[in-house]
């Protein structure tokens, strides 16, 4: 083939002429670089390979990481993992070989990506997020994604989302907003875990988390500062009262002092907020995770104290009275999972925000039932409970159609992937629950939010006092 024939077959003469004309119109000082970039943009992007590997999450337990290749770059996504898997959420695929990582290996999920998903996606346009996700859903063929594994599917979906953003040459949060039909951007209120209990800690605190919400900050940057300062004041207070060992931390970085009652923990947090001088600017949220200590229709708040367990059961009505008392005595404004996941009778919004986590498990059918029964007024969304970016967008839409708030949440087993930070801004959620204002895998999300706020400049709003409504 002659040079002229080659140029004609690939229509290169016309493409090069267009690039040169564009460079002249732009009066670029570097025409070679400009023409190179112009030609690159003219090439349609396509997925050329999907390669997965097993990595470790923040708990030292295996999870799935994916590199998705296009002719324009490599894009990475990683699957977070929870401490437990509920019966209504999508299913992680684990190897079950107790001789390797105590049965927690994910080599089967990795193999499914490398052998099945990769083959199915090669050649697809990465900007077609819904089609990519649908291909994986149909390839799996199960309701809970148990064949390929949700840990395989969500990692690929996240990587594809990043590739699509790159192809569109927009930041990831803007691309997600486009997928969801959003046009405005607000930075979420960060829910900082400061004390851990429940199954995340070795103390006797029955509930899982005490969190702080800097709702009256002027911007996210200030909210992060307020959270970090409170966290460090809390460390000093715990050290004074319980010794340095009280500052050991739980799975997501909250302190684990040797306390047994919720009020004792709330007193510590209230004192720390007082030392910062942010009394009117920071509110408190608690994650009760009541399913952990529900026995039949009763609740055992002494379930972590062997000598007292089973001696002081509380009814659902008793729990309601306790929550009302806490909200009167402390600046508690949000309670996550105040009752068992099947206790539909008592779980009704009252003077505080009721966040559904175990109650909902990000499951559309559970969300629909909760909306019909007015069982809660906020969703705690975990991406790996759903399975694909497209489905996550739909779940958030359902929650907002019910006029709920939305909390984009971390998992106990996190990675350095900051995807949920961009997701929170792109979907304009009221809160992000990314953990403590320390530890790399938690700060990856908070630091990404700082970058997004800086990039948005005057366009950046902070949800702040409106956090209940987003």
Structure, explained:
- Residues 184-470 form the Enolase C-terminal TIM barrel domain.
- Keywords: Glycolysis, Lyase, Magnesium, Metal-binding.
- Helices cover 41% and strands 16% of the residues.
- By secondary structure, it is of the alpha/beta class.
- It has an 8-stranded mixed β-barrel, surrounded by 6 helices. It has a 3-stranded antiparallel β-sheet with strand order 1-2-3.
- β12, α11 (364-372) and β13 (378-381) form a beta-alpha-beta unit.
- The N and C termini lie far apart (61 Å).
Question: What structural class do the secondary elements suggest?
Answer: alpha/beta
Strand order in space, largest sheet: 5-6-7-11-12-13-14-15
Q: Average pLDDT across residues?
A: 92
**Count of DSSP strands:** 16
- Gap from first CA to last CA: 61 Å
Shape: globular
Strand content: 15-25%
* Secondary structure tally, helices: 15
Q: What fraction, in percent, of the residue positions are helical?
A: 40-55%
**Biggest β-sheet, characterized?**
8 strands, mixed, barrel
Can you tell me the residue ranges where pLDDT is under 50 for at least 5 consecutive residues?
none
Rounded to the nearest angstrom, the radius of gyration is: 24 Å
Key words describing this protein structure:
magnesium ion binding, 15 helices, lyase, three-stranded antiparallel beta sheet, Enolase_N, alpha/beta, single chain, Enolase-like_N, eight-stranded mixed barrel, phosphopyruvate hydratase, 470 residues, 16% strand
Task: Describe, in short, the structure shown.
The protein has 470 residues and is of the alpha/beta class.
């Amino acid at each position: 083939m002659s040079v002229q024939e080659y140029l004609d077959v690939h229509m290169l003469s016309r493409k090069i002429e267009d690039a040169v004309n564009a460079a002249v119109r732009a009066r670029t000082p570097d025409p070679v670089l400009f023409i190179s970039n112009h030609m690159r943009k003219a090439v349609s992007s396509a997925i050329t390979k999907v390669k997965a590997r097993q990595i470790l999450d923040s708990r030292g337990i295996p999870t799935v990481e994916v590199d998705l290749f296009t002719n324009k770059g490599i894009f990475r996504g990683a699957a977070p993992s929870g401490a437990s898997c509920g019966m209504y959420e999508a299913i992680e695929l684990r190897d079950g070989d107790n001789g390797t990582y105590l049965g927690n290996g994910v080599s089967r999920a990795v193999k499914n990506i490398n052998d099945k998903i990769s083959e199915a996606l090669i050649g697809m346009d990465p900007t077609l997020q819904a089609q990519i996700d649908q291909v994986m859903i149909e390839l799996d063929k199960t309701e809970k994604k148990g064949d390929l594994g949700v840990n395989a599917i969500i990692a690929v979906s996240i990587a594809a989302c990043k590739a699509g953003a790159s192809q569109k040459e927009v930041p990831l949060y803007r691309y997600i907003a486009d997928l969801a039909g959003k046009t405005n951007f607000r930075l979420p209120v960060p829910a900082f875990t400061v004390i851990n209990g429940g199954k995340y800690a070795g103390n006797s605190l029955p509930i899982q988390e005490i969190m702080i919400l800097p709702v009256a900050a002027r911007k996210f940057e200030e909210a992060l500062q307020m959270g970090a300062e409170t966290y460090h004041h809390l460390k000093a207070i715990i050290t004074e009262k319980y010794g340095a060992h009280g500052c050991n931390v739980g799975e997501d970085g909250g302190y684990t002092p040797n306390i047994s009652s919720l009020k004792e923990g709330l007193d510590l947090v209230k004192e720390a907020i007082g030392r910062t001088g942010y009394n009117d600017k920071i509110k408190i949220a608690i994650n009760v995770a009541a399913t952990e200590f529900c026995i039949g229709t009763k609740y055992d708040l002494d379930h972590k104290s062997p000598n007292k367990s089973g001696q002081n059961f509380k009814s659902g009505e008793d729990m309601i009275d306790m929550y009302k008392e806490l909200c009167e005595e402390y600046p508690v404004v949000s309670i996550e999972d105040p009752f068992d996941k099947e206790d539909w009778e008592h779980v009704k919004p009252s003077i505080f925000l009721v966040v559904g986590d175990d109650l909902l498990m990000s499951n559309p059918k559970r969300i629909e039932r909760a909306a019909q029964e007015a069982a809660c007024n906020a969703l705690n969304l975990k991406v790996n409970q759903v399975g694909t970016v497209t489905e996550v967008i739909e779940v958030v839409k359902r929650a907002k159609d019910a006029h709920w708030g939305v909390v984009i949440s971390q998992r106990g087993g996190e990675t350095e992937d900051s995807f949920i930070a961009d997701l929170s801004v792109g979907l304009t959620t009221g809160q992000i629950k990314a953990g403590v204002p320390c530890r790399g895998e938690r700060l990856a999300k908070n630091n990404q939010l700082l970058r997004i706020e800086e990039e948005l400049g005057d366009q950046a709003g902070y949800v702040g006092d409106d956090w209940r409504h987003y």
